[in-house]
Design a protein that fits this description.
The structure is a single chain. The protein has one domain (31-192). The protein has three helices and twelve strands. It has helices at 2-23, 34-40, 181-192; strands spanning 43-56, 63-76, 84-90, 92-94, 97-99, 112-121, 128-132, 139-144, 151-155, 162-163, 170-171, 179-180. The strands form three sheets. Strands 1, 2, 3, 6, 7, 8, 9 and 12 form an eight-stranded antiparallel sheet that branches. Strands 4-5 form a two-stranded antiparallel ribbon. Strands 10-11 form a two-stranded antiparallel ribbon. It starts with a helix and ends with a helix.
């Protein structure tokens, strides 16, 4: 009897998963070189995550999350230290229902990140909003090494080395390997001149 319930529950879960996949847009995770991130972003900043709020889109089907950040440093664009911004991300949890975007970034309250941000216009409302350029490719987590007290950077969910240009050399930074923050920041400053 219990086995039948488990099988029925599993079958229902699979049906819902296939329905959700058919209703969702696809995400293809490809390499995004640092030069592409720099050129494609309107703003490159360091920000500290303050809060996040998930909600349903206008059609009631999609779930979005607005992430509020405080800018702690500007590298490119018009955003300034102390500005508070809101990034709009696809996915989130509302009323116990969670949608995930493969390749989407994760944000945790209080964390500091290097962010590549683009400005977009909503097709449904016509209003401008901010989003990460390149999904998780556009977010690097910053931390201080406990042993050396050095500020370091690690990629958010991306296990690929960061190429500087397509087919060119790369920085050995991934979701499992960090590099000094200053190394990445210097490369970015050269590319945005």
């Amino acid at each position: 009897m219990e086995t039948k319930k488990i099988k029925k529950s599993f079958a229902m879960t699979l049906m819902l998963l296939f329905w959700w996949v058919s209703e969702s847009s696809a995400t293809i995770f490809v390499e995004v070189p640092l030069k592409t991130l720099c050129v494609g972003s309107n703003h490159i900043v360091i920000g500290r995550m303050l809060s996040k709020q998930s909600y349903r889109g206008l059609n009631g089907k999609q779930i979005y999350t607005d992430v509020t950040l405080e800018i702690t440093e500007k590298i490119k664009g018009v955003l300034q230290k102390g500005d508070r911004i809101k990034l709009t991300l696809a996915g989130g949890t509302v009323d116990g229902i969670t949608t995930l975007v493969l390749g989407g970034p994760r944000f945790n309250e209080g964390e500091e990140s290097l962010l590549f941000i683009s400005e977009r216009i909503s097709e449904s409302t016509g209003q401008k909003y901010l989003k990460l350029f390149g999904l998780a490719h556009g977010k690097f987590d910053i931390f201080t090494d406990a042993k050396t007290n050095e500020r370091r950077v690690i990629r958010d969910q991306v296990d690929l080395p960061l190429t500087l240009e397509k087919g060119g050399p790369s920085l050995e930074v991934s979701s499992t390997k960090s590099i000094p923050f200053v190394s990445l920041a210097n490369q970015i400053r050269v590319l945005v001149r």
